[in-house]
Design goal:
The chain is mainly beta. It has no helices and eleven strands.
């Protein structure tokens, strides 16, 4: 499984970005997906997660109401819509895939990782 993340960039505070993660796998719909981020000098943490069907989602408290995770299984792609961006959202964002069931919040639960896309939010 290969994951290709894209959509990062430089945006002013209050702006929006949409990250995409395209997966090269036939059975994408059987994978739980997650978005993580790693800010400079910090550990990589989960931002949002979604089950294989898209029926259940999770958001870390700091992004609730601003970020939306979604997936299009026909396109083998998971998205992270980020609105009302803040400077503290600045980080490298990674998508991850797992064949485990449910909402997965920990790095060790994921088997495959994208290369990361940098999001920089200026104040």
């Amino acid at each position: 499984v290969q994951l290709q993340a894209s959509g990062g960039g430089l945006v002013q505070a209050g702006g929006s970005l949409r990250l995409s993660c395209a997966a090269s796998v036939r059975t994408f719909s059987s994978y739980a997906m997650g978005w993580f981020r790693q800010a400079p000098g910090k550990e990589r943490d989960v931002v949002a997660a979604i089950t294989w069907s898209g029926g259940n989602t999770y958001y870390v408290d700091s992004v609730k109401g601003r970020f939306t995770i979604s997936r299009d299984n026909a396109k083998n792609t998971v998205y992270l819509q980020m609105n009302s961006l803040k400077p503290e959202d600045t980080a490298v964002y990674y998508c991850a895939a797992s064949q485990e069931v449910g909402i997965l919040l920990h790095e060790y639960e994921y088997d495959y990782w994208g290369q990361g896309t940098l999001v920089t939010v200026s104040s």
